[in-house]
Specification:
Distance between the termini: 58 Å
Structural class: mainly alpha
Number of strands: 2
Largest sheet: 2 strands, antiparallel
Oligomer: single chain
Strand content: under 5%
Strand order of the largest sheet: 1-2
Shape: globular
Radius of gyration: 22 Å
Number of domains: 1
Number of helices: 22
Order of helices and strands: HHHEHHHHHHHHHHHEHHHHHHHH
């Protein structure tokens, strides 16, 4: 492969910067809102997110899996943390207690993932997470996140009723962004999310001045346990530890997908190094009040659309992201993005998760019996997502956060279903072999 020209490398670096920004900026804002943090604390979280994401990407590219794949704040973790924060009143707990327990669970799960990764967890996960399990995981994740984004698009984050003006504006921006992505050519299509964000941001400033916030110029960058001091609510800690283990599916799915793009097999040592780093990031995220990390499967689509697979542009984009995070004024400025605009852009971006989910089951043959492998876990997870959290109050507190989470229950049900299917298929093969021997 020829050496990449410097100009192309820097252009690719700016594209990576935009991609990282679009996938990162809304997360600390939404988490800050869920935990009732002050604006100055949210800006500080944005700074930490930018710097930590840039560092995480560089380390993965250098000593981890060594692909040009964004290491970002995980959608699975994000959805679970928002869900737990929303259950504070149902669980009769303070938000700081929930936040402190999430931090403890993240530290424990990070250490566990690093330890298991060191001893070959990646190879084991490749066997457990079959295409059916990955379909259920991606489908439920898309369903949960799209619901969160849609609430922001409709103005339901600030009110109990739909704000018609905000909703109409959000859907116009969504349609505009999708149009650019589908009909645009070259750089227009590649940067459709960025263009949609800028246009939406400018439009919101003129139309919804009440939604914009004042820029904060001085922020305390390093803050330990901003969601709450460490606490041990074991139901939440258990849910978070399970989330950390299930989050390793992002690593497996993304590195498997990278094999097609890079035209080579991902080696066990790459899984090992990537999981060890992601586990370390997870523990540190718990202390710093950040959503824990994982390789982004959406990076695969980015690589395919740009056609630039080299690591140099990826490193340039990561370094620029660190630079933005290191300047408080820039971080504070980016924190002023209206929630409705940020949610609209992520709504469009994460629609691609549905495509990723369907690709996992392409070619699988289903009958009236085997369809249960997908129908049971997928529909069970969606059903639990639609049950009011108050309905789970009679369930023991230790397992209440787990059983009330449709995403986690759906994944666990998919794993159990696949185990039963595999066990029954193995038994059938043994019986058929014995019958053939007897004949």
């Amino acid at each position: 492969m020829g050496k990449l020209p410097v100009s192309i490398a820097f252009l690719g670096g700016f594209q990576w910067l935009f991609f990282m920004f679009a996938n990162t900026v809304v997360i600390p804002i939404s988490i800050g809102g869920a935990f009732g943090l002050e604006q100055i604390e949210i800006v500080s979280a944005i700074q930490r997110s930018f710097i930590f994401t840039g560092i995480a990407c560089i380390l993965q590219g250098l000593i981890g899996h060594r692909y040009a794949l964004m290491e970002g704040q995980s959608g699975l973790w994000w959805g679970v943390i928002l869900s737990l924060a929303a259950t504070a009143s149902t669980l009769n707990m303070e938000l700081t207690t929930i936040g402190g327990s999430i931090a403890v669970g993240a530290i424990i799960s990070g250490l566990l993932v690093s330890f298991l990764g060191m001893f070959g967890l990646g190879n084991l996960l490749k066997k457990w997470f079959t295409p059916v399990v990955m379909f259920v995981f991606l489908l439920l994740l898309a369903n949960q996140l799209i619901y969160i984004f849609l609430k922001g698009m409709l103005g339901l984050n600030n009110s109990e009723y739909i704000d018609v003006r905000v909703a109409c504006f959000s859907f116009v921006i969504a349609a505009f962004t999708i149009y650019l992505n589908v009909k645009g050519k070259g750089v227009i299509s590649n940067l459709s999310l960025l263009i949609g964000m800028v246009v939406g941001w400018i439009g919101a400033v003129f139309l919804f001045q009440h939604e914009t916030v004042t820029t904060v110029k001085t922020t305390p960058f390093l803050t330990w346990f901003p969601w709450g001091e460490p606490s041990l609510e074991w139901g939440i800690v258990l849910t978070v530890v399970i989330t950390g283990l299930l989050n390793t599916t992002n690593t497996v799915a993304t590195l498997k997908g990278a094999e097609d793009i890079y035209e080579r097999k991902t080696q066990p040592k790459q899984y090992r190094a990537s999981l060890m780093l992601s586990g370390g990031y997870t523990s540190l995220s718990g202390m710093l009040g950040l959503v824990p990390y994982a390789p982004y499967a959406s990076s695969l689509g980015f690589l395919q659309s740009t056609g630039i697979k080299e690591r140099l542009p990826f490193f340039i984009g990561s370094a620029l992201f660190i630079f933005i995070g290191a300047i408080p004024t820039l971080s504070a400025f980016f924190s002023t993005i209206p929630h409705s605009v940020g949610n609209t852009i992520l709504f469009v971006a994460y629609l691609q998760l549905f495509r990723s989910a369907l690709r996992n089951i392409e070619g699988l043959q289903f009958t009236s019996k085997t369809i249960y492998r997908i129908a049971f876990p997928a529909l069970l997870g969606m059903a639990i997502m639609n049950i009011p959290t108050e309905a789970f109050t009679q369930i023991p507190v230790l397992i209440q956060p787990l059983v009330s989470n449709g995403l986690l229950m759906g994944i666990i049900a998919a794993l159990l279903s696949e185990f039963i299917f595999y066990f029954s298929q193995t038994n059938r093969a043994i019986v058929e072999k014995q019958q053939s021997i007897e004949q």
